User: Which sequence fits this backbone?
């Protein structure tokens, strides 16, 4: 267990270093939708929900840190990212950290998915467009037990709808909100667990 926590700490540190470099060399020049999640908060949430044999998917996996954290914890971990340069970065980080996490370039939206919410255009946030990443993974969304997303403003309802339409019944959706931390949803209901030691 100590070795696993040491690897998790190393992965988080590497992730922050990558983020700072990306922010300095890419985001300062042009807008890019990649913003690093709070790796420590996400790590704590994943630790609460991990169980042997679970399959994990990250929507918009960017530099791959969260998917790699899931792999280190024992999840069968996959990430889908639209930006091919970030997929390359994630694969390099996985090699460096000796992670078996799998990354593919593409959209986390299944082929044919259409969001029909009240503010459809706004609520798609920065999901972008491209071929579905599930085809390259050779897996469908309902193959995953735990799915993680970091929604931009307004994207939460779309992500909940996506899981409702394509996810497996009983699968867990973890959404990282900048104000509320990591919230957990199962079949559309908020089932967020309290951190250990809190009433």
Assistant:
């Amino acid at each position: 267990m100590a070795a696993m926590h040491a690897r998790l700490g190393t992965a988080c540190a590497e992730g922050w270093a990558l983020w700072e470099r990306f922010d300095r060399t890419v985001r300062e020049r042009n807008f890019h939708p990649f913003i690093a999640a709070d790796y420590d908060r996400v790590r704590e949430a994943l630790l609460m929900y991990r169980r042997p044999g679970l399959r994990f998917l990250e929507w918009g996996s960017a530099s791959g840190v969260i998917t790699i954290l899931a792999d280190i914890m024992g999840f069968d971990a996959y990430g889908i990212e639209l930006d091919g340069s970030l997929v390359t970065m994630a694969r390099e980080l996985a090699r460096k950290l000796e992670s078996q996490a799998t990354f593919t370039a593409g959209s986390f939206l299944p082929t044919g998915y259409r969001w029909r919410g009240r503010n459809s255009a706004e609520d798609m946030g920065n999901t972008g467009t491209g071929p579905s990443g599930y085809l390259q993974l050779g897996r469908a969304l309902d193959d995953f037990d735990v799915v993680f997303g970091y929604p931009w403003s307004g994207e939460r309802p779309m992500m909940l709808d996506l899981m409702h339409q394509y996810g497996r019944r009983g699968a867990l959706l973890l959404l990282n909100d900048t104000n509320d931390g990591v919230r957990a949803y199962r079949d559309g209901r908020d089932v967020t667990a309290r951190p250990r030691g809190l009433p």
In short: The mean pLDDT is 86. Residues 2-190 form a domain with the Rossmann fold fold (CATH 3.40.50.150). The helical segments are 2-27, 39-49, 65-72, 84-96, 120-123, 133-137, 156-166.
